[in-house]
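SAMPLE LOG
Freezer: B-3
Tube label: C17
Construct: single chain, 222 aa
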Amino acid sequence: MKYFPLTVLDNFFPDIEYVTNLSKKIEYQDLGSTPFPGKISIDIEEVDKDLSDWVVRKVMNIFWDMSIADYCIGSTVDFQKIEPSHFNYGLIHHETIPKCAVVIYLNDDCDKDSGTSFYKLKKEHEYYDENCLEYQKYIDVTTSFHGGVKPDNYNEIVENHQNKFEEVMRVQPKQNRMILYSPEVWHAQTTYGSKTRHTLRCFLHTISVLNDNREIMPPLLR
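STRUCTURE (predicted):
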C-alpha cells in the first residue's frame, strides 16, 4: 500500500547551517553489513530532541493539522553520509516497514544527478520482488559489499538487478530540499557524485490519534 505521494519541498529548515553543523559533529555508527551504503548517525533525538520533534511535526503538518488532535507518532530521525564510489550509480531498492520516508539534502554544493531517482519494474519483470531468489542474491552480495567484502559475482548480480527497472522520476539535489515518498516505491541515489553526500533522514513508522486510539494514514493512492 502506497500511503504517501512523492512530495518535494524547498527551504525546509529555517536555519540550515545549524543542521549541517550538527551533522558534522554527531556520532556515526561504524560501517556494517547492510544492503545500503554509507554511515548512519545515532538518532538525532539523543543529542537534540527539539530538532527531532520539530522535523516530525513539520512532516506531519504537510498532511494533517497537528493542532486539532493529539497524535502518537513512531519515528526515527538521523543523518546519513555516503562517500563517492567507483560504482557510480545508486542501488535500486524499496522498504516495506516504514510508512513514510523523508530525505533532506544538506550539501551546499550538490553535484548534479546525486539526488534521488524513482523506478518501476519493466513489464517483463513485474513479478520480481523480495521473495525471488534473484533478489535475495542481490541483497546478499550488496550486504557483503557494504561490509567490506566484494563477492566475485558482485558486478554480474547487481547489473542483472538494475536492468530490471526503468527510471520514472528524478529529483535533483539542492541544499535544504526535502523529498517525501512511500518507501514501497523502488528508489535509489541517482549517482554518488564526487563528494561526500550528507542528508537528514526521517521515517514515520506508526501514526495514531490518541483520543480514540485509532491509527491513521492518508488516503490510499489508487
